[in-house]
Amino acid sequence: MLTWNYPEIPAGFSCHNHTSWSDGSGTLEEICRKGKDMGLKVLGISDHWVKPPFPGTDADSWSMDLSRTGEYVAALQKLKAELEDENFKLLIGLEVDVFPENIGEVIVELQKFPLDYMIGSVHYSGTFAIDYSPESWKDLSEKEMDDHCNVYYDKLEVAAARSEFAFIGHLDLPKKFGFIDNKKYFRRAVKVLDILKESGGAIELNTAGFYKECTEQYPALEILQQAYKRQIPVIINADAHCPEHLMRGFDQARRLLQQAGYK
Ligand SMILES: [Zn+2]
Ligand SMILES: [Zn+2]
Fold first, then answer.
1. CA 91–ligand 1 middle distance (angstroms)
2. Number of domains in the chain
3. Tens of pLDDT along 182-207?
4. What does 106-122 look like in DSSP terms, one character per residue?
5. How far does the centroid of ligand 2 lie from the alpha carbon of residue 250, in Å?
6. Structural domain includes residue 5
């Protein structure tokens, strides 16, 4: 289980990380050893688990092979047995892509595995991959961009209402490549926070955004301040796709959260 208390900013945690089981570059063993060497107290591995309810997406190129979920969990259990000690805990997670059409069945399917936690994230508007590349955004009309953002937040509301997710991934992801005015969707983001408040959910400060075209964390400071007001717990994550990035941007992230009120 992955839990911590509001308004505490958990220290020594890094729980949104990918390996070569999905679209990351390090092996499970490499990333787990690196996390322990770096002095993390709690390392969570959360490879992508994407089951679109319709054809036409590029999910096969970045999701784990769903038929091998049991092997993934078993490999992590083995590493847990080898590496865990009183100072280091390894959590078995998944970053689950939320599709309103099948999320109920997907959760039932995943609850059969001894997972420590699941992240609820949205990466698609229909078959359009929100965070794949700037190329896919650059020729869209303003209306098309607006439609994708609204579908994104519609789906995120569904994710936020589920009590099974430890937290919601990268809340304001559509800003990633710098094509939209993120402030335009502030109310939509706040609505997601209101739903999380009801469902008992949490969010992450995801530092990967610092290094993308948007040049800021997900979500924006104004949204973090609203999360603080609503007493929504927050965790700092790197969304690392290689072992070296497990704690990338964490000092800056902590300062931002303190600015928002968290301790
Ligand atoms: Zn993601
Ligand atoms: Zn991720």
1. 18
2. 1
3. 999 999 999 999 999 999 999 999 99
4. HHHHHTTS--SEEEEE-
5. 16
6. no
